[in-house]
């Protein structure tokens, strides 16, 4: 089994989602980890911060903007009305959930819950696109298996058991889609693996499943010798 990971800029638009979907749908079984679409996590952090400061008006303004953005993505991404309506329903439920924090106390726990919605949105939209195009794809919710222990480290025995059971019960799919970054803590509350967490998720999955290959995909050419914005002579390292 291969494990692949794609970051937010790799799925930052409907066009890029289509491109990545064509890339991964090669008939070879694999687990693919996705981040939230680029810019979404920052918007969700801003929403959570406004709610925590009891500025519901500002939070809801961003929510409305984000919902309109995603609804336009849906119209670009899908061709079948059934998939469009299914995806719009999902978005409506998630954005209504976000609005429900208007009259609640928002602390660290709620903040993490709000921020987790980005990966949930992106992976559902990607899975819906794959299914519409005849790909045998299945969504594996990260919150069903990705768990931290009391030391805030991945609970590898739990993760391996849950993943193995899920894959054994759902054999025969070409693609298993899952979320990076998000997880549960040892009490069962929604948490996250911090920035860069999607790479971390993919690494944890590859270890837990003894994957043959772990591929971290990115939209840049590779590692450079220095920051090209600072050092004009910087170049891409051919082999590392």
Structural notes for this entry:
The chain has 240 residues and is of the alpha/beta class. The protein has helices spanning 14-24, 40-52, 56-77, 81-99, 108-115, 117-132, 156-169, 197-208; strands spanning 2-6, 30-34, 137-140, 175-179, 182-184, 190-192, 213-217. The strands form two sheets. It has a five-stranded parallel beta sheet, sandwiched between helices. Strands 5-6 form a two-stranded antiparallel sheet. β5 and β6 form a beta hairpin. α2 (40-52) packs antiparallel against α5. 37% of the residues are buried. The model has no long low-confidence stretch (mean pLDDT 95).
Main pleated sheet = 5 strands, parallel
How do the SSEs run, as a string of H and E? Answer: EHEHHHHHEHEEEHE
C-alpha geometry: globular
What topology, given as strand order, has the largest sheet?
A: 3-4-2-1-7
Summarize the structure.
By secondary structure, this protein is of the alpha/beta class. Helix content is 48%, strand content 12%.
Tell me the layout of helices and strands.
Blueprint: E1 2-6, H1 14-24, E2 30-34, H2 40-52, H3 56-77, H4 81-99, H5 108-115, H6 117-132, E3 137-140, H7 156-169, E4 175-179, E5 182-184, E6 190-192, H8 197-208, E7 213-217
Parallel strand pairs: 1-2, 1-7, 2-4, 3-4
Antiparallel strand pairs: 5-6
Helix pairs in contact: 1-3, 2-3, 2-5, 3-4, 4-6
What labels would you give this structure?
about 240 residues, alpha/beta, 5-stranded parallel sheet, two-stranded antiparallel sheet, 7 strands, about 10% strand, globular
